[in-house]
């Protein structure tokens, strides 16, 4: 965890950062928890709060519309709060990505409700599916709504503001005992998609399940994620954005920044901190500090994208 | 590794009490598997041909019960059940297709 101090911000950051580390597969991960304004990539994070030049886009994740269990009886309500938060941001983002688990049970009504609320942001939204979005009998509701113009189970790429974005699907054809899965067809497409791109093009990969191994005991990782990362190795700036684990987690490895966003629906425990990764019931007063969205700013000539996680409250 | 918290402890006690009952039901041609905390319990079940197994999801998150080429449940929401009657001997490995680290085994003889 390194970065420059920026006056007052540096002090408060040190005060609020509650770093918990544990050894995964020989790497030290860092989690930030209980952070009123959790800082993502610190180098220029505060730059994005003001009217930042460059391009800003938003990430929302794991809205689980339809979820009504004790951890949050009104997931649709907190999604709406997140959208209100987005609408109140001083800089209007260029667009939004949603990193999956739009719905809880893939019901048509859940997709409709999600769309009704998310569309209030009046932003273009680029979706990738989570495992909760493919639960309908015919597995067609997600594809009918968001699959147009995509390949395979829903992967695609696009360019915006000089950045190349790739949306990947790692929630289908999962193998017993395994983790998330991209599969050979998608990997071959990715390799081809990146071929010929200038190595100075900033790359953003986004997918539901973390592409890096966060905690295999809970399935938090992608079996063949390493192969996708091989393909982006030569690029100067790579940002990997995921959801699924309902908490902010980040890691920087060389030119690659890994970041997971909060859910707008319910928090999940830190790896290994509970008997299972299921929805975590916290005090009502604390819930909104553990839900939120992420905003990502890209400035030309800066290697790293600045990521700011904003909770719904606190 | 960890000390049991009160909830785990009461679950363990409850399991210890219930265990003889479920075992005794083996002759009833009906057996149960519970999904708790992303775990199939019991993880392995030995049954006789003709036994019907019922899986119940007791988590706040949907799960599935899938054995490649043998059986596949729809997504089970909280307290939803899936039943399958085993008419052939053999080892049936199964898993949750949403959370593939969850695996189980039914041995039919």
TrEMBL record, chain A:
Transmembrane segments: none annotated. Pfam families: Metallophos. It comes from the Bacteria. Gene3D superfamilies: 3.60.21.10. GO terms for molecular function: hydrolase activity. Residues 55-247 form the Calcineurin-like phosphoesterase domain. InterPro entries: Calcineurin-like_PHP, Metallo-depent_PP-like, STPP_CPPED1. PANTHER family: BLL3016 PROTEIN, METALLOPHOSPHOESTERASE, CALCINEURIN SUPERFAMILY. This is Metallophosphoesterase. It comes from Bradyrhizobium zhengyangense.
From TrEMBL, chain B:
The keyword Signal applies. This is Cupredoxin family copper-binding protein. Residues 1-26 form the signal peptide. The keyword Signal applies. It holds the Pfam family Cupredoxin_1. It comes from the Bacteria. Keywords: Signal. CDD domains: Amicyanin. Coiled coil: none annotated. PANTHER family: BLL1555 PROTEIN. Residues 11-106 form the EfeO-type cupredoxin-like domain. It comes from Bradyrhizobium zhengyangense.
């Amino acid at each position: 965890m390194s970065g420059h101090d920026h006056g007052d911000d540096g002090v408060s950051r040190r005060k609020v950062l509650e770093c918990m580390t544990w050894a995964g597969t020989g790497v030290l991960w860092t989690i930030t928890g209980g952070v009123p304004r959790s800082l993502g990539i610190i180098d220029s994070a505060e730059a994005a709060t003001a009217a930042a030049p460059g391009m800003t886009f938003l990430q929302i994740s794991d809205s689980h519309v339809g979820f009504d269990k004790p951890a949050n009886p009104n997931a649709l309500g907190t999604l709406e709060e997140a959208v209100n938060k987005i609408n109140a941001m001083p800089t209007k983002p260029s667009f939004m990505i949603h990193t999956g688990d739009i719905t809880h049970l893939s019901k048509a009504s859940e997709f409709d409700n999600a769309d009704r609320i998310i569309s209030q942001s009046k932003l273009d939204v680029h979706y990738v599916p989570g495992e909760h979005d493919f639960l309908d009998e015919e597995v067609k509701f997600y594809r009918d709504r968001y699959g147009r113009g995509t390949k395979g189970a829903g992967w695609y790429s696009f360019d915006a503001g000089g950045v190349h974005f790739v949306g990947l699907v790692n929630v289908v054809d999962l193998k017993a005992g395994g983790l998330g899965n991209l599969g050979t067809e998608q990997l071959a497409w990715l390799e081809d998609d990146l071929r010929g791109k200038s190595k100075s093009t900033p790359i953003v990969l986004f997918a539901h399940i973390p592409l890096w191994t966060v905690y295999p005991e809970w399935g938090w990782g992608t079996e063949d994620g390493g192969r996708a990362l091989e393909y982006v190795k030569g690029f100067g700036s790579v940002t990997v954005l995921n959801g699924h684990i309902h908490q902010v987690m980040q890691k920087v490895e060389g030119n690659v920044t890994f970041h997971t966003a909060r859910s707008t629906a319910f928090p999940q425990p830190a790896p290994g901190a509970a008997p299972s990764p299921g929805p975590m019931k916290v005090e009502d007063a604390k819930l909104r500090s553990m839900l939120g969205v992420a905003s990502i700013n890209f400035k030309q000539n800066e290697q790293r994208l600045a990521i700011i996680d904003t909770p719904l409250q606190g | 590794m960890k000390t049991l918290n009160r909830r785990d402890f009461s679950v363990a006690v409850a399991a210890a009490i219930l265990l003889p009952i479920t075992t005794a039901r083996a002759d009833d041609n009906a057996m149960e598997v519970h999904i708790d905390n992303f775990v199939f319990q019991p993880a392995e079940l030995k049954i006789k041909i003709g036994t019907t197994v019922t899986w119940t999801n007791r988590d706040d998150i949907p799960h599935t019960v899938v054995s490649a080429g043998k059986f596949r449940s729809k997504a089970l929401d909280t307290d939803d059940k899936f039943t399958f009657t085993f008419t052939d001997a053999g080892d049936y490995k199964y898993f949750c297709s949403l959370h593939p680290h969850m695996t189980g085994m039914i041995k039919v003889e």
